[in-house]
């Protein structure tokens, strides 16, 4: 079977591997689409500190069940369209004992700490499958990235009395915008790209600010009547936006970090105490976040055509990754299409 391999930073190869054999409790799926995410871009650039090369990337899955081993429930049938939870959990670490499996100390995410799903076939434990027959193949490949933003909103404890600032309007930020809006919050979206900000409004943001053109602090002060946003969700992972989140959040506000910076970040720590902030990390997503995304998608409100930048053949991945690396603002979501293979 055909697979896309990142042998080292900046390199992409198409390789032939054997189709996996399913064992007890496993399901064999044929991949339809795999979304390429910012983590994959970091891996291509050599900027992902968690990855070990060579690696098959990809964990945003849309697939079809083609076979199953024994000890798999009857309701999982051949031909079902599925997505999958791409994380592992050990069940024994402090996170798992608190039922926060998304932050397992020993988690291995597909395409990062272990090989991913950018290949024609994949064997998965049946417990990792999520199915919804109302969703299309394209929608299923967007469930995982949106769920990460949904989880960040949960971590921020967002309610309908909050003003929420989302910094970064890629796919993860899009999930945060949708979920915060669904909870009744007033949402401010910030990015450097006007096209992404236009999409952010379609997703529920009441206000948008282009931080490359407008003075962000002044804009936020005007929108919030000089109070600052109650919750800031940082979905970029740069030192500058890490600091901005602390500076702009309201006194006694909450800051949620999704992105992480490869470089150290210097803070004016007096703001932590002076503002009495709640500063929280947000990692991956829980099963209930996946379900919430799929429930939202069932409403038909997701503007799918605005989110998918391009569908690629596996052989086109190398060129597309280089173009994305050179001009990241031009891409919202890339799909690798295995459906015809």
Write the layout of secondary structure elements.
Blueprint: E1 2-5, E2 13-16, E3 26-36, H1 38-45, E4 60-68, E5 81-84, H2 94-97, E6 121-125, E7 129-131, H3 137-140, H4 143-155, E8 163-167, H5 171-182, E9 186-191, H6 194-203, E10 207-210, H7 216-223, E11 231-234, H8 239-248, E12 254-257, H9 270-274, E13 278-281, H10 287-298, H11 304-307, E14 310-312, H12 317-326, E15 334-337
Parallel strand pairs: 8-9, 8-11, 9-10, 11-12, 12-13, 14-15
Antiparallel strand pairs: 1-2, 3-4, 3-6, 3-15, 4-5, 5-7
Could you characterize what this model shows?
- The chain has 341 residues and is an alpha/beta fold.
- The chain contains twelve helices and 15 strands.
- It folds into two domains: 2-142 and 302-337, Quinone Oxidoreductase, Chain A, domain 1 (Alpha-Beta Complex), CATH 3.90.180.10; 146-281, NAD(P)-binding Rossmann-like Domain (Rossmann fold, 3-Layer(aba) Sandwich), CATH 3.40.50.720.
- Helix 12 links the parallel strand 14 and strand 15 (334-337).
- The model has no long low-confidence stretch (mean pLDDT 96).
- The chain has helices spanning 38-45, 94-97, 137-140, 143-155, 171-182, 194-203, 216-223, 239-248, 270-274, 287-298, 304-307, 317-326, and strands at residues 2-5, 13-16, 26-36, 60-68, 81-84, 121-125, 129-131, 163-167, 186-191, 207-210, 231-234, 254-257, 278-281, 310-312, 334-337.
- Helix 4 packs across helix 5 and helix 4 (143-155) crosses helix 10 (287-298).
């Amino acid at each position: 079977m055909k697979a896309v391999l990142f042998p080292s930073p900046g390199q992409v190869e198409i390789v032939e591997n054997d189709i996996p054999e399913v064992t007890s409790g496993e399901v064999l799926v044929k991949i339809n689409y795999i979304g390429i995410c910012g983590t994959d871009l970091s891996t291509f650039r050599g900027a992902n500190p968690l990855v070990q090369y060579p690696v098959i990337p990809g964990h945003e899955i849309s697939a079809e069940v083609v076979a199953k081993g024994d000890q798999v429930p009857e309701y999982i049938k051949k031909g079902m369209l599925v997505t999958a939870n791409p994380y592992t959990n050990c069940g024994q670490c402090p996170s798992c004992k608190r039922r926060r499996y998304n932050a397992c100390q020993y988690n291995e995410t597909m395409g990062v700490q272990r090989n991913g799903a950018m290949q024609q076939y994949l064997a998965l434990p049946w417990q990792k499958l999520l199915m919804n027959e109302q969703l299309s193949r394209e929608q299923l490949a967007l469930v995982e990235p949106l769920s990460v933003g949904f989880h960040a909103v949960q971590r921020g404890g967002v309610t309908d009395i909050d003003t929420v600032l989302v910094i970064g309007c890629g796919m993860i930020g899009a999930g945060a915008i949708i979920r915060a809006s669904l909870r009744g919050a007033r949402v401010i979206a910030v990015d450097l790209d006007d096209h992404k900000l236009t999409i952010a409004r379609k997703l529920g943001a009441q206000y948008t600010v282009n931080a490359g053109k407008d003075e962000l602090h002044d804009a936020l002060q005007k929108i919030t009547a000089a109070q600052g946003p109650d919750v800031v969700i940082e979905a970029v992972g740069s030192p500058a936006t890490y600091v901005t989140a602390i500076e702009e959040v309201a006194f006694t506000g909450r800051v949620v970090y999704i992105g992480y910076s490869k470089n150290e970040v210097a803070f004016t720590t007096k703001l932590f105490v002076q503002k009495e902030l709640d500063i929280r990390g947000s990692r991956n997503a829980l099963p209930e976040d996946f379900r919430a995304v799929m429930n939202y998608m069932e409403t038909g409100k997701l503007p799918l055509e605005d989110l998918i930048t391009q569908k690629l053949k596996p052989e086109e991945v190398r060129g597309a990754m280089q173009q994305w690396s050179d001009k990241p603002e031009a891409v919202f979501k890339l799909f690798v299409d295995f459906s015809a293979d």
